[in-house]
Amino acid sequence: VGASGEFGYLIPGQGGKLKYQSLLEYVSDDDRDLGNVIRIFSTYMGVYFHTPGRIFLWNGKNIKAWVAKTKFQDSFYLNNILFVQQSERGLMKIDGDSLVMFNGGEIFADMQINSMIPVEEGLVYIVTQNNGLYKALLYADLERNIFSFHTGIDDFTSEMKLTIIITKQVVDCSSIIYFLQGLKEFKLHYI
Predict the structure, then answer these.
(1) How open is the CA angle 93-99-104, to the nearest 5 degrees?
(2) 15: which DSSP letter?
(3) How many degrees, rounded to 5, is the angle at CA 89 between CA 168 and CA 27?
(4) Is pTM, for the whole model, over 0.85?
(5) Which pLDDT score, from 0 to 100, does residue 187 have?
(6) Contact (CB, 8 A) for 74 and 38
(7) What averages of pLDDT result for each successive group of 10 residues across the chain (191 residues)?
């Protein structure tokens, strides 16, 4: 459970009612300026709590914190990897006990990532708000693992000043990309 300046979990209380258990007692005084908890991911490593200034990992016994040098914008958990976009820096990932730049992730330093869509093992589409689509190779050991992904609708979306706002996986694992123009939302393209 996450809120403004607070996070924890629910436990059974008297009479079967749920009771909130704060985790702040495990957070160092230096890390207590939380702000809002933006996202929570329950993983095999523990539970990640994403705030604008920190990422916390609760492993059931203690809390590990990663501090943003600027601000954490959004985060995504795919293929057992936590990715986090840090403004003015780019797309980063948690690697063991470290927060490191994803190979080529600096390209997103001044962009807004809206979503990351797993396509197949080790391949992810990254959808940006105003800068098109990208492909990311998760497990390749390249200097740069992120590549622009050009589609037949690039000129159209640019010319119409459309903004990609949401993606949605459908039953056959293809994805639908929605665009917004003014106040009108419409489905335009399948990947």
Answers:
(1) 50
(2) G
(3) 85
(4) no
(5) 46
(6) yes
(7) 84 87 87 86 93 93 94 92 95 94 92 85 83 82 76 61 47 44 44 43
Under a CB-based contact definition with an 8 Å cutoff, are residues 102 and 154 in contact? no
Contact 1, 8 (CB under 8 A): yes
What's the CA gap between 123 and 18, in Å, rounded?
Answer: 40
Q: Hey, which bits of 13-172 come out as E strands?
A: 18-22, 39-42, 47-50, 54-58, 63-67, 72-78, 81-86, 90-95, 98-101, 113-120, 123-128, 133-137, 146-149, 163-169
Q: Write out the DSSP string of 81-115.
A: EEEEEETTTEEEEEETTEEEE-TTGGGGTTS-EEE
How is residue 82 written in tokens?
């936590």
Give the Cβ contact number of residue 123 at 10 Å: 15
| CA 182/CA 18 separation, integer angstroms | 43
Residue 7's closest CA among 20, 19, 23?
23
